[in-house]
Amino acid sequence: MENKRGSWASNIGFLMAAIGSAVGLGNIWGFPYKMGKCGGFSFLIVYLLLAIFVGMIIMASELALGRKTRKSPIAAYQAVSKKYSWLGWLAVIAPFLIMTFYSVLGGYCIYYIAINLGGLFSGNMPDSSSFGAMLTSIPVSIGILVAFMVICMLIVAGGVSGGIEKFNKIGMPALAVMLVIIIIKSWTLPNAGEGLKFMFVPGYAVKGGFIDQSPDFISILGTAGGQMFFSLSLAMGAMITYGSYLDKGENLVKNSVIIVVSDTLVALMAGLAVIPAAVANGINSGKAVSEIKLNGPNLLFSTLQDVFHDMGRVGGLFGIIFYLLVLIAAISSAISLMEVLTAHFIDKAHEQGKEADRKKVTLIVSAVITLVGLLVAADGLGSNGFSPAEIFHSANVKGWNDCWLDFMDTWSEGIAMPVGAMLMGIMIGGELGPDFILDEIHSGEKSSGFDKFYKICVTYVVPVVMCFVLAGQMKDFFGNSAASYIIAIVILVIFAAWTYLTKKKAAK
Ligand code: PFF
Question: Is the pTM of this model over 0.90?
Answer without folding.
Answer: yes
